[in-house]
Amino acid sequence: MKKFKFNLLAGLLLLISASVCAQNAPEKVQEAFKKMYPKVTTVEWEHKGDYHIVGFVSDSHDMNVWFGNNARWIMTETNVESLEEVPAPIAKAFMQTETPPIQIRYIKIITFPKMPTVVIIDIEEYNSNREIQLFYAPDGKLLQSLDVSGGDGEIYPELFG
Asked: Considering the entire predicted model, what is its pTM?
């Protein structure tokens, strides 16, 4: 019984130490983030593939900043609550082309270091499992429409390549 308790305790300690390590990015990535957002203190780090993603809240918006392994800024996702927070041409284009019965699931403003901003409006049809992501340019032009029904709606840098 003592051996079981020891193994259980050792396993828990290993799990805790692994999850603590997973919460941090390399020092150079953390430094790059601190240069971009020096006033942000409460963050959560996540690692996906070749990316380090830091999540935080700024100006009451949930944000995710993506960095490459080399500490290069890839993109920033800013979650907004309504069409009132996106450029007016996008809101106008969306309202003119989308017809009920739909609901907006979320809106993300994606900014990049060297590409124009993209706004993603994720919609869901009522009484249906159909979910669509609409990608708009700042001028209101619809860049692409992705059917992400079935849960494949994750936003990642390769969508914008």
From this structure: 0.82
Residue 8 domain flag: no
Please check whether residues 93 and 138 belong to one and the same domain. Answer: yes
Regarding whether 130 and 161 lie in a shared domain, the answer is: yes
Distance from C-alpha of 156 to C-alpha of 161, rounded to nearest angstrom: 10
Tens digits of residue pLDDT in 89-128: 999 999 998 776 899 999 999 999 999 999 999 999 888 8
Q: Specify if 3 maps to a domain.
A: no
Tokens matching residue 139 = 């001028």
Last residue of a domain, one of 16, 48, 77: 77
Radius of gyration of the chain (CA): 20
Closest CA to 135 of 112, 160, 156, 157: 160
- Give the sheet arrangement for strand 61-68, strand by strand: 44-48, 51-58, 61-68, 73-80, 102-111, 118-125, 131-136, 142-147
In 3D space, the residue among 133, 161, 126, 159 whose CA is nearest the CA of residue 148 turns out to be 133
Residue 124: CATH number of its domain: 3.10.450.360
Query: What share of the chain in percent tops pLDDT 90?
Result: 71
Distance CA 72, CA 92 (A): 34
| Structural domain for 110, as ranges | 81-161
